[in-house]
Design brief:
The complex is a heterodimer of chains A (about 170) and B (about 150).
Chain A lengths: L2 H10 L3 E3 L12 E5 H8 L5 H18 L9 E3 L8 E5 L6 E9 L2 E9 L9 H18 L10 H4 L11
Parallel strand pairs in A: 2-6
Antiparallel strand pairs in A: 1-2, 3-4, 4-5, 5-6
Chain B lengths: L11 H30 L3 H8 L3 H7 L8 H10 L23 H7 L2 E5 L6 E5 L2 E5 L4 H12 L1
Antiparallel strand pairs in B: 1-2, 2-3
Helix pairs in contact in B: 2-3
Classes of the chains: A alpha+beta (about 170), B mainly alpha (about 150).
C-alpha cells in the first residue's frame, strides 16, 4: 500500500481530513491533510465572534499552502531538531498567533498533526514546545506508521513554488 | 455555487476568511514579484528602504506578513521597484472558472466518499464505498466543507 493509499484510507476512516479551498474556483494544487483534533477545532462553531473570525483567518492561511500560493520563508518553518522533520505553518496575525505543526508525506503533501497558540508555547526550548513537537511525531506514527516523513531541511525541496528565502534576510 | 445577491447575512467566519484570503493573495503576488526582481536586478530591501526614506526593518516587516500591508505601502513598495499594481480583477463566484486540477493525493482521498443533497434544504447524504448515510448536522461549516468536496 502506498502512502497515498494509506492517507486515503485514513480519510475514509475520518482520522485525516483533506483541507479543501472554500472559495469557488480555487484548486487544491498541493495537498494538506488535517488530523481530527485540528479539524474539529476548525469546523466547530464558536459562540465567541472574535474566535470565529480567527478560525476563518486560519482557514485562509492554511489554504495558502493548498491553493499553490508562493510560499515564503516566514510561512513555513522547520523546527529544531531538524532530524525530527516537524514543520510549523505560521498563522500569526491577527492575534492570537497560531502554529500548526505537521510533517511532509511527499513533496507538496503536508499532514497537519496538531496546533497550538504561540502564547502557550513559550521560549524555543520550553517544555511546551517540546511537548508540541513530540505530539506531532506521535500523531504521525499513529496515522502513518511505518512510513517516515520527508526529511529535507530546505522547504524549497518540499514545496513546489516556494520562494527562495535568501532575498528576505 | 454562491449567490452573493441573496439577502442572507454573511457569517462572521466567512467574512474573515475572505478578507484574509484577499490579503494573502495580494501579499503572495508582492513577495513573489520582489523575489523575482531581487534575483534579476539584485535589488535589496535596503535599496527599497533608501528610496522610500524608511528603515530597512520596516521593509522587512512589510514583506513578512500579509497583515502588515496597507494599500499605501503596497503602492510604495512597488513604486520603489519601478512597478505599480493593476487593480484586481473582480470575478463573480458564479463566473469563477471551474478548477481543472486537483492534487493526486486529494483526488484519492475524495474518491473514498461523495456527497449528495437531499430534497430538504438541509438534507445531505454521504456515500462511502457504496453505502449511503444521512448526514445529521446543522453545522454550517461542516456542510460547507462537504459541499466543497462535492464540487471538487
Amino acid at each position: 500500500m502506498s502512502i497515498r493509499d494509506v492517507i486515503a484510507d485514513r480519510c475514509r476512516r475520518r482520522m485525516l481530513f483533506p483541507l479543501l479551498p472554500h472559495a469557488p474556483g480555487a484548486a487544491a494544487e498541493r495537498a494538506m491533510f488535517v488530523s481530527e483534533g485540528l479539524w474539529q477545532f476548525m469546523q466547530s462553531p464558536s459562540p465567541d465572534q472574535a474566535w470565529d473570525e480567527r478560525v476563518g483567518e486560519l482557514q485562509a492561511d492554511l489554504e495558502r499552502f493548498v491553493t499553490g500560493d508562493p510560499i515564503d520563508p516566514k510561512y513555513l518553518f522547520l523546527l529544531s531538531p531538524t532530524s525530527d522533520a516537524v514543520w510549523e505553518i505560521r498563522s500569526t496575525r491577527p492575534k492570537p498567533s497560531i502554529r500548526v505543526l505537521g510533517l511532509f508525506a511527499a513533496k507538496d503533501v503536508f499532514v497537519a498533526t496538531n496546533f497550538a497558540l504561540r502564547s502557550e508555547l513559550g521560549g524555543w526550548q520550553s517544555r511546551e514546545w517540546k511537548a508540541a513537537k513530540r505530539a506531532a511525531k506521535a500523531r504521525w506514527r499513529h496515522l502513518l506508521s511505518p512510513y517516515q516523513p520527508l526529511g529535507a531541511t530546505n522547504y524549497t525541496e518540499l514545496v513546489s513554488g516556494a520562494i527562495d528565502g535568501r532575498y528576505f534576510r | 455555487m454562491d449567490d452573493t445577491s441573496d439577502k442572507r447575512k454573511i457569517e462572521t467566519r466567512r467574512l474573515s476568511y475572505f478578507r484574509q484570503r484577499f490579503k494573502n493573495r495580494v501579499f503572495s503576488h508582492l513577495v513573489e514579484f520582489f523575489a523575482r526582481e531581487a534575483e534579476v536586478s539584485g535589488v535589496t530591501k535596503r535599496d527599497i528602504a533608501s528610496k522610500l526614506n524608511r528603515d530597512p526593518a520596516q521593509i522587512t516587516r512589510w514583506l513578512s506578513n500579509p497583515s502588515n500591508l496597507t494599500l499605501e505601502t503596497i503602492s510604495d513598495l512597488l513604486l520603489a521597484l519601478n512597478a505599480e499594481p493593476n487593480p484586481p480583477k473582480i470575478v463573480k463566484f458564479s463566473d469563477a472558472a471551474r478548477r481543472n486540477y486537483t492534487h493526486p493525493f486529494v483526488e484519492s482521498a475524495l474518491e473514498t466518499c461523495r456527497v449528495e443533497r437531499g430534497k430538504g434544504a438541509s438534507e445531505y447524504f454521504v456515500y462511502e464505498h457504496s453505502k449511503k448515510f444521512q448526514l445529521s448536522t446543522k453545522n454550517s461549516n461542516e456542510v460547507q466543507n462537504l459541499l466543497t468536496r462535492e464540487n471538487m
